[in-house]
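Q: Convert this sequence to structure tokens.
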Amino acid sequence: MKTALGTLLCLLALLAAPAHAAEGLDSPRSLDSVSQEPDTFVLGLNVGDNWKDHTRTFSRIDAKVQGYMDFVARGPINKVNPQKKPVRVDFVLAHKPDAKAKKFLEEKRKQLAGKSIGSKVVIPPDAKPSYAG
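A:
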């Protein structure tokens, strides 16, 4: 019971946090943002890396995606999504992805789809160019 209550309190704190309060890839076990659309429950995953080190960035995204899938599969999401709306993960990028990063993100989207989790890649208008070495 304590674990469920603790999870619920953490999730409620996330819901109350300002939109700019984001952990990103440095915190693989935390949700970066949580929001709801009329028919969808959205988990934001912030990718601030500039794609310079693909191996490192891909590994960090893998860990974060696994945490998000666990959150959905193990049920904590049901505490804040009692209507059981479909879930979507938004990859919010600070830097425009290069071709290798685009391919990797598409693989992650397929992985999420295999768990019945929607996803999309969000590239804000102010996203910086990827590292051009």
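Confidence is low (pLDDT under 50) at residues 1-10, 12-21.
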